[in-house]
Design brief:
two-stranded parallel sheet, Arc Repressor Mutant, subunit A, alpha+beta, three-stranded antiparallel sheet, elongated
Length: about 150
């Protein structure tokens, strides 16, 4: 039983048989239409974002398994804000509840407990120039460390 893995970055809900997926799957003689349909079903909630997918194909039976990663934290922040670009000049603001939502969405990719995951999302907010509840995300991180905000 031989297995081959195809990894790609696709737009959520809009994967197609075009490169990189089509040619890679074609070589494995798997039903490309079925694979694309399954990927689009699993990634539809990430519409407009690049999503990492991994397709493991059993080259003997042509059966496949698809695992979907989560988009980068910065993409989830942009989606939550409804923003095209981020930066300190954009005057963007998330609520703490939105930060929690992003941390939960990234749960499988980030390390540590929920508190650590929230702090990692806050770190991305710092880099992206996004405020949280109108404050510098570093202040929110400090409040978490000091127990003023519970996660």
């Amino acid at each position: 039983m031989a297995k081959k893995t195809v990894k790609a970055l696709v737009e959520g809900g809009k994967a197609s048989a075009a490169p990189p997926l089509g040619p890679a799957l074609g070589q494995l003689k798997v039903n490309i239409g079925k694979v694309i349909e399954e990927i689009n079903k699993k990634t539809k909630d990430f519409s407009g974002m690049q999503v990492p997918v991994e397709i493991v194909v059993d080259t003997d039976t042509k059966e496949f398994e698809i695992s979907v990663g989560t988009p980068p934290t910065s993409s989830l922040i942009k989606k939550e804000l409804g923003a095209k670009k981020m930066g300190p000049d954009q005057n963007l603001n998330l609520t703490f509840d939105q930060v929690l939502k992003i941390a939960k969405a990234k749960s499988g990719d980030l390390f540590g407990d929920m508190k650590a995951k929230v702090k990692q999302v806050l770190g991305t907010c710092v880099s992206a120039g996004v405020k949280v509840d109108g404050r510098d995300p570093r202040e929110v991180q400090r409040d978490i460390d000091e127990g003023k905000i519970s996660v």
